[in-house]
TrEMBL record:
SUPFAM superfamilies: Periplasmic binding protein-like II (SSF53850)
Keyword entries, A-Z: Signal, Transport
InterPro entries, per the entry: SBP
An MF annotation (GO) of this entry: maltose binding
Protein name, entry field: Extracellular solute-binding protein
Length: 421
């Protein structure tokens, strides 16, 4: 009798579970992180927890290599085959929203009140995406190098001025110890250029586009401040202060650790390896070139595609993923910056006194998102080519004027990308 009752209960539980699973509506998800097992494991944990937490939705993910991901999304959008949930690189989001690939999120925005600004994906006054991390760049060096060169250690409150920064590079060059004083990462291409280098332009007082209207690059990319930036940029390579566009990719990856460079302009994703190499590693704030120190902000974010027939379910998954424990899990797994202070305290690296805690402070104090406009995807490519050309000796004024004209022509072709005076 007891065995019969047990079997009946087990059968009933199985039937209930099967009924619940059958009642769950499938939600498809695309992700850019194929090939990163640690990242994939955290994401799968969130999906499994969400699927088990309720009886309405069942999320399944398909991952793509990052290099082909954006092209896959654009092709799927044109073919009408987008999944319910996609992730999108923060600065690309306005273009995808304007192009009709995304719809606004249906989440409780009080849940992101304490998020850093970078992970919040707003376009046209609406929240279209939200990130579970951010990324930051710092000037990486060693305290022993600063001491040997007799340099002041800059702080967030008192970053190096342009004069101090250039003095540091010249002092490093004068030792004859290094292949170059500064590694900018010129071997990296694509989004690295606008993410890592446009903050220098912005610190001079220029920009990729006039952010007051987003309707022109005139004056922003070719004004006096931009020209001063361009001359400074070209001087880095002309005076052998940094390797140029022919930098060996291997030297970018390990050159600082190998002693080739005194300073490296690099991101927090590379910080763990450097910390493991040198116990006196220090991460310095961006220099102030006159208009305040700047670094880039906004990384990959989650959004709901315009093709989703279940935006409520897709948004529910994204809102579920915003819990501090998941933000901390991603940070611990891949080294990126948690978007909340409370999540940071749950991590190995970003808690108070943690070896990478400075990156959270840098993001909070210095980060500036790339221009929030659908035209950014073109502006970024134009800027990349212009900086590479200037580094290779092209005339600064001619190059920046031509880049300005190209961006303005694109804005005009696209009727201002939805912006108005």
């Amino acid at each position: 009798m007891k065995m019969t009752a047990t079997l009946t209960a087990a059968l009933l539980a199985t039937t209930v579970w099967a009924t619940m699973a059958a009642a769950q509506t499938d939600l498809s998800m695309w992700y850019h992180g194929a090939g990163n097992p640690k990242e994939a494991a955290v994401l799968q944990t969130i999906i499994d927890d969400f699927n088990a937490s309720q009886s309405d939705w069942l999320v399944a993910v398909e991952s793509f290599p990052q290099e082909s991901y954006n092209d896959s999304v654009v092709a799927a959008a044109l073919a009408g085959n987008l999944p319910d949930i996609i992730d999108v690189d923060g600065p690309v989001m306005p273009n995808w929203a304007w192009s009709g690939y995304l719809q606004p999120l249906q989440i409780d925005e009080t849940k992101i009140e304490n998020f850093l600004p970078g992970p919040k994906g707003y376009w046209d006054g609406k929240l279209y995406s939200i990130g579970l991390w951010d990324a930051a760049v710092a000037l990486v060096t060693r305290q022993s190098i600063l001491d040997d060169l007799g340099l002041r250690t800059p702080t967030l409150e008192q970053p190096w001025t342009q004069e101090e920064f250039m003095g540091a590079l010249e002092a490093a060059k004068a030792t004859g110890t290094y292949d170059y004083p500064l590694d900018l990462g010129m071997a990296w291409t694509g989004e690295w250029y606008p993410y890592a280098f446009s903050p220098f332009l912005q610190s001079f007082g220029g920009d990729l586009v006039d952010r007051s209207t987003y309707l022109t690059a005139e004056g922003a990319l070719n004004g006096d401040a931009a020209m001063a930036f361009g001359e400074w940029w070209q001087g880095l390579f002309a005076n052998d202060l940094a390797p140029g566009t022919s930098q060996d990719p291997a030297a970018r990856e390990t050159g600082f650790q190998d002693g080739k460079y005194a300073f490296s302009w690099n991101g927090n994703w590379a910080a763990k390896n450097i910390l493991e190499t040198f116990d006196d590693t220090v991460f310095l704030p961006a220099p102030d070139f006159g208009a305040g120190p700047k670094i880039g902000a906004a990384s990959w974010q989650f959004g709901v595609s315009s093709a989703s027939k279940h935006p409520d379910g897709a948004s529910a998954f994204i809102e579920f993923a915003l819990q501090d424990k998941y933000l901390a899990d991603f940070s611990n797994a891949i080294g990126l910056i948690p978007p909340t202070a409370s999540a940071a305290q749950m991590t190995e690296n970003y808690k108070d006194g943690g070896p990478m805690a400075v990156f959270y402070d840098l993001t909070k104090a210095q980060a500036l998102v790339r221009p929030v406009t659908p035209g950014y995807v073109v502006e970024a490519k134009v800027f990349e080519k212009a900086l590479a050309d200037i580094a290779n000796g092209a005339d600064v004024a001619d190059t920046l004027d031509a880049a300005t004209d190209e961006i303005n022509a694109d804005i005009e072709r696209n009727s201002g990308y939805g912006h108005s005076e």
